[in-house]
Amino acid sequence: MPELPEVETIARGLAKRVIGDVIESVWLGSKPEPLKSPAKEIAKVLEGSRIADVQRVGKHIVFDLDRVVRTPPSAKKKSSAKGDHPEKAQWVVHLGMTGRMLVNDPTDELAKHTHLVATLKSGRELRFVDPRRLGRLSVAYGFEPGGKEPLDVSLQDFIPLFRGRKTPIKSALLNQKLLRGVGNIYADESLFRTGVRPTRKAASLKKDDLARLHPAIQEVLREAIKLGGSTVSDYVDSDGEEGFFQLQHRVYGREGELCLVCRTPIKRVVIAGRSSHYCPKCQK
What we know:
Blueprint: H1 4-18, E1 23-28, H2 39-46, E2 50-57, E3 60-69, H3 73-76, E4 85-94, E5 100-104, E6 114-120, E7 125-129, E8 136-140, H4 155-158, H5 169-174, H6 184-194, H7 207-226, E9 267-271, E10 274-278
Antiparallel strand pairs: 1-6, 2-3, 3-4, 4-8, 5-7, 6-7, 9-10
Helix pairs in contact: 1-7, 6-7
C-alpha cells in the first residue's frame, strides 16, 4: 500500500501538472467498490470545477476544488432563493493497495481496471486505475481524517500518543488515529534507526526512546520523499515512474540478509497480521 512518502510524491507531481486546470467531464466505471461517494455526486461535484490545489492529507490525495453552484432560473424568481455562488469542495482519493492516479493524454491506451477518467480543459486526462479495487474515491467539504501529521507533530504532542498503550509499538505507529500516513515500511525503518524492537509495548518506551523515535520517523519520511518513495510492488508516481528509497531500506524486506550495522541476520515477525523486520542485536 502506498504510504506517506509515496502519496506525497504523487500529490506533488499532480500539483505541478493540474493546478489551475478545469475538470470538464467525468467518466466512472461500473464497479461500485472504489466509490465511497455515489457516482452521481462525484460527477456533479467534479464537473466544471477548477483544481485549486492538490495536497496529501495522511494517506489521501486531496484535490481542493473551486466550483460554482448554479441556481435554476425558476428558483431564482423566488425571493428566498440564492443566486449562483462559489463553493469549496474536495475530491478525496485513497489509493488502497494498488491504486494509481495518473495524468494521461487522451490518445494513451486506457489501462484495464481504470475506474475514473476526468477530462481536463487542457486536453489531458486524470485517470484512476486500481486492479484490486481497494482504493476509494469520494467528495467532501472540509475533509479531516484525524490523527497527527508525522512531519509536523511536535515532540511535546508526540510523546502522549503512546502513553499507556499496551499494543506493540509497531501497531501503535500504524494506528492512523494516532499518526496519519505512517505505514509498514517506514515504521520498520524508523524503529531500526531508534534501536527499538517492533514487538515492544508502546507503553514500555521511555521518554528518551520516544525522543529518538520522533526525529527518526521524520528523517526516514523526508529521505523517502526525496527519493520518490519505495517501489516494492507496483507503486509508481503520477508520471508512471518508480521510486528509489527501497534501495536504502535497512531492515524492511531484508529477512535473512545481514544487518548493515552489526552483520546479524535480519528477522521477520508478524504483528497483528503485518510483517515486521528488525535486527535482533541492534534493536532491544
